[in-house]
């Protein structure tokens, strides 16, 4: 894919620290590859612990002024940033498609989705209300205020390189925090372009800092932030294993944490479901970004009475999906992020077939490029298969049979994860009952698209804690202060 940006200044290949674009202090760099062809098309700094500490020093120095600014002033900056993101949608989408692989139309959708969080928190910035507690003793006033938590370290994944960093930075800045950020090593360019637009919007030096680094130096950069007492909060989206490590290693300085971690989402189709709507919902939930999303359905449970009909309808839709690079205008699914991802998908499919699964559609690597896998449906899935307990993170749908509501709810909850769940039913009593019993932070009821800037996003159990988006998302970047003033009578 030819990288032809209207604004060439959005292709940044340096860190941004204290308002300046700079290389790593070590001078080391690493390659950024296009997953559609595995060819290198850019290089960025392989930053070290010293770079991470410089970013924190800049953020700490900028904190008093930024935190003291009126909320409406911070909101005006976010509004300018939002306008610039929207105005540069095409260039940002091209960067997303080039480094992450998703089709260009889907990349444009991600830009709009990420921008919606910036706009939302521009509006929420002026609504960080406190409370006045009714007088308990004559002449004594009790008030509660919300204050910025301090310097925030944001660590983001590769699957949504713009949306994930936007929905972390925007509420942090709205609350009055300053930020140090590390984008995923596979997809740093989109985040750097986003920061370039923040610079253009007039953000003061030091308020937002970003460092890139290679896979073998991530521990150095993040480790520096974990040990640094000036970093008061870490917000992370990624694997549960890494989230647990962050929780352990941040304990020394008692940092606040927001962790949006792994999932194992069930998708339940009851016998009274609208099957066409259920297929539509599953297609939207499962095949967005090629199945590389944390809320992607991993286990699809279909009632015995509608199993055959649902499988037939789903197979026809999946078989019609078009796979190709972002340069292909009708592509609906692009390459997976890298060869390791394809190897895991293929291993899950081969394991399922060896354990009695029946291949309905797909089930093979594609030769269109190095990292493509055919959209796949496997019938007769069972819980001894690896794909039942591990996130496949790819375009594979395993279909499990069930016959009883209590049975399927138990199976849906039988996982250490609790991010998202979906179910389809036209029985309003069942809808209320099942929604309450599912042990997840998000529940889609007759709907396959859950995320919205107006709604709280986050999980329970080993899917993490904290919420992003909505009015609750601002709270995660503030701390409560209680003031007791006497002598007023």
UniProtKB/TrEMBL annotation:
Check the record and name the PROSITE patterns matching this protein. ALDEHYDE_DEHYDR_GLU (PS00687)
Question: Active-site positions, per UniProt?
Answer: 260
Specify the superkingdom. Bacteria
Q: Which Gene3D superfamilies match?
A: Aldehyde Dehydrogenase, Chain A, domain 1, Aldehyde Dehydrogenase, Chain A, domain 2
Pfam families the UniProt entry points to: Aldedh
Record domain Aldehyde dehydrogenase: where: 21-481
Do you know which InterPro entries this protein is assigned to? Ald_DH/histidinol_DH (IPR016161), Ald_DH_C (IPR016163), Ald_DH_CS_GLU (IPR029510), Ald_DH_N (IPR016162), Aldehyde_DH_dom (IPR015590), Aldehyde_DH_Superfamily (IPR050740)
| Secretion signal span | none
For this UniProt record, the keywords arranged alphabetically read as follows: Oxidoreductase
Q: Which family does it belong to?
A: Belongs to the aldehyde dehydrogenase family.
Protein name from the UniProt record: NAD-dependent succinate-semialdehyde dehydrogenase
Q: Which organism is it from?
A: Massilia pinisoli
